[in-house]
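Can't attach files on this board, so I'm pasting raw text. These are the components:
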Amino acid sequence: MSVRDALESGGRPADAGPAPLLEVEDLVVTYPIPRGIVGAARRAPRLMARAVDGVSFSLRAGEMVALVGESGCGKTTTAQAVMRLVEPDSGVIRFQGREVTGLRAADLRPLRRSMQLIYQDPYDSLDPRFRVLQTVEEPLLVHGLGSANERRLRVVEALERAGLAPADLFVDRFPHELSGGQRQRVAIAAALVLEPQLLVADEPVSMLDVSVRAEILGLLDGLRRTGGMGILMITHDLSTAAHFADRIAVMYLGRIVEEGPAQEVVRSPRHPYTRALLSVVPKRDPRDRSRPEILRGETPNAVRIPSGCRFHPRCPVAVERCPSIDPALHVPEGAAPGHEAACILV
Amino acid sequence: MIEPYLQVRDLHVWFDLQGGRSLHAVQGIGFDLGAGERMGLIGESGCGKTTAILALMGLLPPSASVAGSIVLGGREILAGGEESMRQHRWRDVAMVFQGAMNAFNPVRRIVDQIVEPMELHEVAEGKAAERRARELLELVGIPAARARSYPHEFSGGMRQRAAIAMALACNPKVLLADEPTTALDVMIQAQVLELLVGLTAELDLSLLLVTHDLLIVAQVCERAAVMYAGTVAEAGAMETLFHDPRHPYTRMLFGAAPDLYGRGDVVSIPGTPPRLDREIVGCPFAPRCDSAFDPCRVVTPETLAVGPAHLARCHLNDPSVRSAS
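---
Top answer:
Structure tokens for the assembled complex are below.
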């Protein structure tokens, strides 16, 4: 993949309060589609998928923002770009007010400590041969931090913050001796041990049993409320986002199509895609069964993004102008401040 | 009242373990499923729900032993062993396996893979079987023109539809669907659930939806049985289970699921389910229960009728146990 970064940074929007922990502006990430051996032999043109196609959002310390959408919407790629695991084609990412998009590997090191990623699958992300102590200590060793004694103290503290108390009960265990929820707590402790300011949690509970999901989500919720950490949560589950996040950004085909305070977005969705998505979310109370508005077909390929509004081919309320106007996020009429949607009809 | 098409009574499954021990995976469950009815079988991983439906299919491994009664269309099919199970497998009772969408043979065309069970079970063959396979694909929402595709040419949602078509190949009366939407996006999930509901109405098919996700069951099924540690903890109408649960596990399971509108706290259930390779004394849920009292830890609860078509297996509903403690 060609690397094109180091773009001039835009001015920070005139905003009340302290600078956001994380600012993402007009992020674009593309990747080539494999042509296959036949395509390569025929010298077929190299196709590019626009996985993230102009995404902007910000996140404050102590805030939880959920990026919500179906597979292929670009939510995970956005998170990976924030973590600098993939190189953006263009756009600006600022962390604590400092642009990080153009940083070289050496300058990224301290940054990597401040941003930690929590993976989806606690059965996959822990090394089965490592005891809990080694797993949680590993990031400290990688960053060359502390003496053996200091490291052990930090491991114990991280485990107890992650709810594995007393830590002595857990340090010598192997992953197979832990439940799914405990494994995810170990993974979270391994992220906390570096005392990050930002946690990026990619579907942190989707592999766990329903009965233990809430405790992991509650743990993350507590970390940002008492620890002042910012959390960017990637999830396909709108109910989880609605319950735990302050803000929800709904993504469709590489763009944020609606963003706002979580309960505003859920209770008065403006974008037709958000409305449809909410109508098919399984509700807790069987009496809440609403008429599902099921969209036909599947999300189109990010290689051929529809013209105008990218949602128009599947939109139940699209009008004649929709295929020709690419709508920008704006505050719809009568919406709460900070609630935006990208649809010309609202 | 019409006799339910499928009646399961006191079904047990044991798996032999090394050293002469055994694991009691299903510990005496029972339920009825009427023609055209949709019922959910809800439970967390390891509760025995998949084992129970594999027993209904007669597809358990040789290390398993089964006891109890399975009556299908008025005939006992379990007592006759493999000989009688085989006559009903796929023809009367069919199953969509968990992950079925990823289990197609990658180098064979979809249509050929749907024809195969028809020929194997002598339902149809040759051109007639292929015609039926195309009809089935249309029925599940895949254009017949795409019948000759290979699995990789289908999206996940389409492969799941094709897996459902395959299960319907021999025109069964009962469809057992094990986590049919777990790996799918919410919109595709809605499409597949809509399809399953439509099929039950169109074909007078009975559906047993097996899943850990009780909110999906709430959307699709009239009734459900909630399983815990190999037993049915509570069974009843979906609305009753939510608004008037009579087993704390049911109440706590709903309480652990976040509500879209942010109502109520979301609370995990502490602890883990008991091991099933040891005898369970008292109520299996007692160690995790927020309402347990002394008898729960020593006396095994009976399944009691707590309302019309509403069963629960909890001492809280038994005045004699409550007053004795």
